[in-house]
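This part of the workshop introduces the protein records we will be handling. The structure tokens are whole numbers drawn from a learned vocabulary of backbone shapes. The record below serves as our worked example for the rest of this section.

===
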Amino acid sequence: MLNFTRYIRRFLPTVVSVLLTLLYPLAIWLGHGRVEPRLLALLLVLAAASRLPALKLSRASRWWLAGALLLAALAIWNNALLPLKLYPVLVNLGMLAVFGYSLHAPPSVIERMARLSDPALPAYAVAYTRRVTQVWCGFFVVNGMLALLTAIWASAAVWSLYNGVLAYVLMGCLFAGEYLVRIVVRRRHRRLEQRPDGQHV
């Protein structure tokens, strides 16, 4: 029971933060025209507060918190919706910074995740995880640009549709596509390892 309680305390803030991020676009869309932006900004403050337990562990979380609070402050000060619609842009910038920095200072993010299940990662897998990290960096760039475009030029409904639904569908497609490629790469290297002459084809 004690272990279960510790588990809940450890992961509950992360779960709450993820749920707030997922529901944020929908909440902004539903509140648009009904609730003043300065009140909707409280959602962003709440999302930022949910990340407070991670601040001691991650410098990136500190920068993310500062950015989120800045957007909330601008929304409250100007009673404007645009700063709130820029939150998905901030999320993508934060993820790009984390993934991009891990390429500059290995191991990459994907390699760290892979080593949780296989600490003795072979050389080909290290190279593969680095390439996957690069692909995710590209995704965050494109997704962040689309989030920015929808925030500036699209209606609240279109912005909510993209950032609350389509962006996650694209992310799911990338996850699924990478999983299929990973299976092919793994099988190919297993066949190479089983060749008696050890030569690559």
Remarks:
- Residues 193 and 199 are 9 Å apart (CA to CA).
- Helices lie at 2-31, 37-49, 59-78, 82-85, 87-104, 109-117, 123-153, 156-194.
- The chain is about 80% helix and 0% strand.
